Amino acid sequence: MVLTSQKHLFNIPSDVTYLNIASQSPAFKAIYDAGLEGLKQKNQPNTIAISDYFEPVIELKKLFAQLIGAKDYNRIATIPSVSYGMATVANNVVLKKGDEILVIDEQFPSNIYAWKKLAEKYDAKIRTIKNPGDSKQWNTSILNAINTNTALIAMGNIHWSNGCLFNLSAISKKAKSNSALLIIDGSQTIGALPFSIEEIKPDALICAGYKWLFGPYGCAYGYFGPYFDQGNPIEENWSNRLHSENFAGLTNYESDYKPMANRYSAGESGSFIYVKMQIAALKQVLQWTPSAIQDYCKQISSEAVSALRAIGCEIEEDESRTHHLFGIKLPSNMNVDAFKKELHNKKIFISFRGNYIRISCHLYNTADDFKPLVNCLASHLL
Ligand SMILES: Cc1ncc(COP(=O)(O)O)c(C=O)c1O
Questions:
Q1: Which of 13, 45, 160, 194 has its CA 20 to 30 A from that of 131?
Q2: Which residues have CB under 8 Å from 352's CB, separation 6+?
Q3: How many angstroms is it from 47 CA to the middle of ligand 1?
């Protein structure tokens, strides 16, 4: 499928250039309308049926399962954040003294703190794989670091700040041959880059829902593989137990959970407003397809990438990075403060980290959105 701009579906003001979906996505009309439907229901709680607590959540789990190529929607839990998902994983991992938890240099903190605590608890070690400055070497260093001491690998499938692609297929194979768990943070890719649970076979995949999945802030998803089937959730919500649909029998306390990952859904996952918005969002993403979104982002950004390289910006090689999200190392001969100020005045929104910027784009952007950014950057070279 070849996609064209979908700007007409969004409500981004015409004088704003938003190249920062990796921080927060804008809503499109169907999401906005779905949220309003939820608000209307809040006006009339008598219209909320018992089935509304369960059936929309099942629909949502099916949509997310379809997006990541998971066969059974019961392997999906709806959670509020990546940190919640990682806490759930950490709650179910037992280590031995000296075991290693492998993480990537400058990984997002919600995928770090849980492992630091886990390592302290069991006197295990965190092994951080530094960036040697080249993505091929980085992947080689990761593979070389996996050995029989590796108990768990926690990483993204790209680096969240520069879009560098990690070879999860090879990493997964090496993890399995060393009996290490593989835990993936898919927050910066799922929805905009194809992903297949069947192919990668991670033990868990945790994903924020408010970026490339267009959900409201406070919604996230977790896929939990067979390792976690009999595990302990971090809280005990009534709706995750068997027969919770029978409201009249809720105090016939039930010792069994619903199957697979259902036990890990956060309390009040039926959240009527959010779930409606999330369903509208995932339906649209599935219709667009992550593969066509990725191709579109490549097409609209390629000219700007060449122009930026020509004025001295460093950008990872095209085949080693994503096109919906990529990092740019600014030239050293640049007045970064003046550049920032002008971007602000021109209402161009991107992410800054020291001498690096992160650009992220989607179907509401066009190739024209990159032009003022490139011109602005070029005009602040010293
Ligand atoms: C890679 C990555 N993971 C996770 C998150 C969000 O984590 P949490 O849902 O715990 O706030 C972000 C936010 O920018 C991110 O970039």
A1: 194
A2: 340, 358
A3: 35
